[in-house]
Amino acid sequence: MKRYSFFLALLLCAIGIQAQSVSILGDSYSTFEGYVTPKTNEMWYYEENGNKVDVNDVTQTWWWQVIKESGYKFCINNSYSGSTIGYQGYDGNDYSERSFITRMDDLGTPDIIFILGATNDSWAGEPVGEYKYDSWRKSDFYTFRPAMAYMLHHMTCRYPNVDIYFILNSELRDDISESCRQICGHYNVPCIELHDIDKQNGHPSVKGMRSIADQVKAAIRK
Prior knowledge:
The chain is of the alpha/beta class. The chain has helices at about 1-15, 60-70, 100-105, 120-125, 145-160, 175-185, 205-220, and strands at about 20-25, 75-80, 110-115, 165-170, 190-195, 200, 205.
């Protein structure tokens, strides 16, 4: 009986320390060839990246480093280069098919979700709109604030008991950055504000990826 109790205790202990799994919802900053679901999503980072940026190995990406060094397990990376949180993209084009809102249900069953977005919303000149926390209509999602609020509202309901973190890029428009802070605060989603990220062609270099990983890990430890 004592032996049975001993092995049962070991089993329960093993179950209790299983590594947490991580999913990523992102844009080009989180892509890497062969590590994104679905495969049809557009990439920015490849093993042979030409002169765009010096990142050419998945182990150099911010999310791989966070997962590996924190003892997590990789679940799903649903990142899409050029994607916006809202529906309005570059040159006023409709980006609804690639938007974060459209992809946010396809993240598997993780314990932790990292959202790194709003960069293209800022770069594409998407209007911020008004803060809106309920009664959304599709037309609302062509402005940033309602789209961001709907995304966090939906995700906190869709993924109960999952730790969700929003990662805010550096050097974005002030109105976009402030909107992210306000909306994350409304939904009690931690907003990790990046700073001093080294970039090439607007995208994190190897050094920049390392810095993102370090800042994300430091924020989680707090």
